[in-house]
Amino acid sequence: MDSPPANDCCSVCHDDFSLPCQANCSHWFCGHCILGVWHHGSALQPCKCPICRRVITLLIPTQTALRQRHDPEASHVLENIENYNRIFGGGARSVVQRLRDLPFFLRRLCRELMDPQRSLPLVFKARMIFAMLLSVIYVLSPVDIVPEGVFGFIGLVDDFLILLIVFLHVAAIYRSVLLYRHGGS
User: Fold this and answer.
1) 145 or 58: which carries more pLDDT confidence?
2) For the whole prediction, is pTM greater than 0.85?
3) From the CB of residue 142, how many other CB atoms can be counted at a distance below 10 Å?
4) How far apart are CA 31 and CA 7, in angstroms?
5) Contact at 8 Å (CB) between 14 and 25?
6) 150 neighbors 85 (Cβ within 8 angstroms)
7) pLDDT of residue 1
8) φ, ψ dihedrals at 3, nearest 5°
């Protein structure tokens, strides 16, 4: 979703959203509320989502919030969100965190690919197509690291691993596009 659900409210202040931001765990918060959660804890570590307790490594403000940049208070909150993304958005994350973030980034990527109003950078599109093409060629080719003919169902493990690696790669590239687009790099 490009904006929070209409019948929802911020889980921190329990009020209507003010400068809504979506975290990498897919939950929505007011920009100033989630920054308050971060400032309440250690400023040297990313905060955890108040709902699911996952580490928040990326905050994505809505386009509506970004259009309010002329307002001094909104501008200050958006600058702090950019600062948060700059600090925690590009850092090393565990494989488990990447796997948990995968559905979030793939959903957003699919929505963005279907939206004619949005355009992704040509370099990203080329890398994504190249990675997908190579993975399809590998999965469809008779040459396998673990052949299905010898090992049966277990022989499909390498195909699934290749597809997982490609999806993780595409999600990482899309994450860097989002960081760049929202001022995180």
Assistant:
1) 58
2) no
3) 7
4) 18
5) no
6) no
7) 57
8) -150, 160
